[in-house]
Every structure is written in C-alpha cells, then in structure tokens.
Design goal:
mainly alpha; about 280 residues
C-alpha cells in the first residue's frame, strides 16, 4: 500500500546515501546496525513502559536500515546475499518489537489477551513474509497483499507511540487491526500463489498437448512417406518382372507345354487311386 511513497523516500535518502558512500561503511553493516539498534530499543524500553521513547529509538534505526538499499545502489554493491541478509534482519527486528510489546502487557499492562494478540501479530507477520518468499522460490507470483512489512510496522509503531503519549485505547485498537490485516494479507498471498500455480500448470498442459500433436503429425507424415515409397518400389518391381516375362516367353513356352503334358496323367492317376 505504501509502495507509492518509495520514490519520494528514495529521493530523501539519496543525498544521505551519497555522503555515506564516501565512507568505508558497507550496506550490510548498515543492515546489521539498524537491526541491533531497533532490537535493543524495543526489548529494553517497551517492557519497562517507555513506549514513546522506544518508538523514537526504533524509528531512528528503521531509517538507518532503509539506507542500506540506497547505499548499495550508489556503491554498486547490490547482490543476493545483501537481499537475504536484509530480509533476515527484518524478521529479527519485527520479532523484537512484538516481543517487547507482549512483555509490556504481561509485566506492566496486565493484559494477557493483548499480549497474546501481540504474539499473534508476530506470527502472522512472519507467515505473510514467508508465504511470499516461498512462493517466489518455486516460481510463483505472490506480490500482493494489503499489509506488507512497512504497513505492519507503521501501524504497530504509531499505535505504540500514541499510547506512550497517553492516548487511550489506541494500542489495543492498533494491535487488533494489525492482527486482522495480517491475516487477510496472508490469505491474499495464498490465493495468489494458488492462482499462479494453476496458470503455470495450464500453460504446461498446453505446451505438452502441442508437443504431442506435433509428434502425431510427424508420425503421420512419416507413414505417408513410407507408403508412397512402397508404392513406387512395387511399381518399379512390377515393371521389371513384366519385362523379364516378355523377353523370355518364346524360349520358355515349349518347356512349360511339356511340363503341362506330363503333369496331366499324374493328376489323373491320383484321382483314380481312391476309387480302386
């Protein structure tokens, strides 16, 4: 949903990335620093009730983490391991946020139901990300859904920050809303993956039918060729036999006549034998 804001965010972060590109800092180092800072802030400030301060710390390190992609593009060091590391570190940071909130509800908020909702948001968010990663790993399209990682994190941090400022009911509402949209997004991605798989199977079936038809057509053509070749051979053989018979008929006639004359009495003798 917030993809439309990415070009604007990139324009804001590009000057900072250009400054960092002149330093020895690498994109992977920024990713790790952002994850460590966000996890430390969430796990130390949220459980103790310092919700607004924890949100400020997490927000600062989220921006730091967003710089890794910009820095990688500027330095020309984008790669598969960087994408893997960034995705893995995101899961760790998300877990820290929701574990910190669950700890606050158990220790200071005294609301085990909301603690369970926070844990559910953590699990649902992980499933949303896993569904997309797994679908793409097997060649399926799954880039859909209302609440991606940015939207989920925004809802959680805004609700937590307002609660830290004393706004009532905003954190429970935010967590329940997050649980709902995460569930819907997971369902959307499962459906999208199923449709993509069905489309690929249909395309594979059509390709197989085309290959089978081509083979049948090729076999029929070969049979026609063989039949035509056989007909020509028979015609040629018949012509040769006819020529040979015509050229040898004068010499062969007396012999054939003699054989016919000698064969007749023998046939008469065999016919008369049963009667005697």
């Amino acid at each position: 949903m917030l993809k439309v804001l990415r070009p604007a965010i990139a324009r804001v972060l590009t000057p900072v990335g250009q400054v960092l590109a002149r330093t020895p800092i690498t994109p992977n180092a920024l990713t790790i620093i952002g994850t460590i800072g966000m996890s430390a802030g969430a796990l130390t400030l949220f459980p103790t009730g310092h919700l607004f301060a924890g949100v400020m710390v997490c927000t600062g390190f989220v921006l730091t983490d967003m710089l890794d992609g910009t820095l990688a593009r500027i330095k020309g060091t984008t790669g598969r391991f960087g994408a893997f590391l960034d995705s893995t570190m995101d899961r760790i940071a998300d877990a820290a946020v929701f574990v910190g909130l669950a700890a606050w509800f158990v220790l200071g908020g005294h609301d085990k139901v909301l603690a369970g909702v926070a844990v559910y948001c953590l699990v649902a968010g992980a499933l949303v990300s896993y569904a997309k990663a797994r679908a793409e790993s097997v060649g399926l399209k799954c880039d859909v859904g209302f609440a991606e990682r940015t939207e989920r994190l925004l809802i959680a941090l805004v609700a937590t920050g307002l609660a830290g400022l004393g706004v009532p009911y905003v954190l429970p509402i935010g967590l329940w809303l997050l649980a709902a949209v995460s569930t819907v997004t997971f369902g959307q991605r499962v459906v999208a993956a199923r449709r993509s798989a069905a489309l690929l199977e249909a395309q594979s079936g059509e390709a197989a039918d085309g290959t089978r038809a081509a083979r049948l057509n090729g076999g029929a053509a070969r049979e026609l060729d063989d039949a035509a070749s056989g007909g020509l051979d028979d015609a040629a053989g018949g012509g040769l036999d006819g020529g040979a018979a015509g050229s040898g008929s004068p010499a062969a006639s007396p012999a054939r006549a003699g054989r016919g004359a000698s064969a007749a009495p023998t046939a008469d003798h065999r016919d008369a034998a049963p009667g005697g």
